């Protein structure tokens, strides 16, 4: 059996993620169908993530080189050219090897007509830097953003929009959470060895560089460590509840924060709710790895009458569905899948969830609202509006002095905090 060509696999994967028209599939899901290992797998994934990250500037330059546009049926050829440009401008692989690889790839793709085109385009690109190639291009193209998102960021964060976008063009750090039920953080650092440092925001976070496959993390299968961004560790860390209290994780799948809640409150009555039954299975698997237990419920957080037994909760975590604009480093394809029109629907759903879950909270209890978004409508504006509607709610979010000022809660940014872009608000219900 011949080993699959990693560049050909990358083009085939990208063709499902970035189709010519309509919605593509998520890169993460598509990559499950391309189980290449070792350096071939690394090359394939690097090309896939890189092309998704830098799609707009790569397309912009390529379009300028074409005497006539490529036909929609030549989408795989376009993707191969984009992959070659990405490798030339953003990887440290030798230019001559890249220039030679893609005409061969065109032949393998049964598009021999494109071999000459590929050779000409890549030879020309190899004489330029990305900065030279993009000279004079508008900011949204240089920053590889869809127009709507660039506009939102400029409106929401006039002083930081460019830095947010730039930060999203890099690979994210590899961050772990130490399971406090099994070990202390210094012990985990000692066991993991070189390239490990503690995070400053979450007391159980570790940054590991370079990233390692989880199979090489000591005790991973037994739940000693979990992969989780540092900002994403904050909602469960800041949620306050009595040790044996009743806690609701209202949007639980895949269960990263459910597991963390169990590590923090092992004697609590933990309830994990999730709308999608298939995703609820992921919560079950994640809890099993940790040796954790929780009551799992399938249901809609905005309609508690369908699943709530009437017993109030001492604490609620609402990790709401959102635009994912804070995790574009991890899911760069999301930039091209989301549309401006998705945002009002998400904001409406988040507001309905907040309003529906608030009555389930005991007086004196805490609700933590979180999103992996950097859009103010989903974050501080959402919570300010909620505080207006609910005079019984107080914003008690502990926010560091250097945090960007927002109307309510705590907004984190990749360029400022090193973590993903993330938002959280701790809301206390008056007694
Ligand atoms: C941001 S993710 C949660 C991530 C999770 N808390 C973790 O840390 O692993 C949001 C989740 O909410 C779920 N969801 C979407 N709409 C929902 C609803 N109406 N009720 C409950 N869950 C919902 C999605 O299926 C998704 O799994």
Give a brief description.
This protein is α/β, with parallel strands linked by helices and 431 residues long. It contains 19 helices and 12 strands.
Corresponding CATH superfamily of the largest domain: Vaccinia Virus protein VP39
Low-confidence stretches: none
Number of domains: 3
Bound molecules: S-adenosylmethionine
CATH architecture of the largest domain: 3-Layer(aba) Sandwich
- Mean pLDDT across residues: 95
Write down the Rg: 23 Å
Structural class: alpha/beta
Number of strands: 12
The CATH topology name of the largest domain reads Rossmann fold
Strand % is 5-15%
- State the helical fraction: 40-55%
Span between termini:
69 Å
Anisotropy-based shape = globular
The CATH class assignment of the largest domain is Alpha Beta
By DSSP (H or I, 4+ residues per run), the number of helices equals: 19
Tell me the major beta sheet: 8 strands, mixed
Question: What does this molecule look like?
Answer:
With 431 residues, the protein is α/β, with parallel strands linked by helices. The protein has 3 domains: 6-137, NusB-like (N-utilizing Substance Protein B Homolog, Chain A, Orthogonal Bundle), CATH 1.10.940.10; 174-227, Alpha-Beta Plaits (2-Layer Sandwich), CATH 3.30.70; 231-429, Rossmann fold (3-Layer(aba) Sandwich). It is 42% helix and 14% strand. It has 19 helices and 12 strands. Strands 5, 6, 7, 8, 9, 10, 11 and 12 form an 8-stranded mixed β-sheet that branches. Strands 2-3-1-4 form a 4-stranded antiparallel β-sheet, with helices on one face. Strand 5, helix 14 (256-264) and strand 6 form a beta-alpha-beta unit. Helix 5 (75-90) runs parallel beside helix 7 (114-125). The longest helix has 16 residues, at 38-53. The chain is globular, with a radius of gyration of 23 Å. The mean pLDDT is 95. Bound molecules: S-adenosylmethionine. The site of S-adenosylmethionine has 17 residues, from helix 14 and strand 6.
